[in-house]
């Protein structure tokens, strides 16, 4: 019985870590060795629905009228963390994607941007604490998200266009999703010019809507 319990625990550990895995499993995630993996629930002409397991991130928040300004400051803090500004002084490998939680507010209001770097599998269980009080470790819950992909650069304008396109597609099928925020998601380093991949995510709040598509995982 003890052996069986230990085996189950070991398998669960492997399963949890497998959600942060080899980048070769995703065709668009090729700049880092580890990427956030997912299960495809279904796909339509306008969006995908994905399931993500709960994982740990290192994050920071910035409030600003200008998205690009907030992302520049946030990226610098998180980059410092993975290059040694942590309580163990260790270098932590960059992963993908970089995820930004964007609060939905009026154009004239300042928005809260929460940028997060995915922690590699080896640091998912016991990540080193940050030394900057503006940086923190957080977990995202088990999620089902609606996803639309696009190329080019992730900016305020491209993110707004993608978010508007996805929300229009979801409203057309009466999908239930969180309207208070969305995620702006990037897979490439700032210096890459071509073959860039970005996404917008909206969190499903009910059974996902996938009309005229075959469910991959019932």
Write the layout of secondary structure elements.
Layout: H1 2-18, E1 20-22, E2 34-36, E3 39-43, E4 48-52, E5 55-64, H2 67-82, E6 98-103, E7 111-118, E8 135-140, E9 143-150, H3 156-172, E10 181-186, E11 198-203
Antiparallel strand pairs: 1-2, 3-4, 4-9, 5-7, 5-8, 6-7, 6-10, 9-11, 10-11
SS strand fraction = 25-35%
Order of helices and strands: HEEEEEHEEEEHEE
Task: Using the coordinates shown, work out and report the CATH topology.
Answer: Multidrug-efflux Transporter 1 Regulator Bmrr, Chain A
**What proportion of the residues is helical, as a percent range?**
10-25%
Unreliable stretches (pLDDT < 50, length at least 5) are 1-18, 213-218
Task: Count the DSSP helices.
Answer: 3
- Which of globular, elongated, flat, extended, rod-shaped describes the shape? globular
Q: State the name of the first-level CATH class.
A: Alpha Beta
The largest pleated sheet is described as: 9 strands, antiparallel
Report the span from N to C terminus.
33 Å
Structural class: alpha+beta
Rounded mean pLDDT is 89
- Number of folding domains? 1
Strand order of the largest sheet: 3-4-9-11-10-6-7-5-8
Overall CATH architecture = Alpha-Beta Barrel
Radius of gyration: 18 Å
- The count of strands amounts to 11
State the CATH superfamily name.
Answer: Regulatory factor, effector binding domain
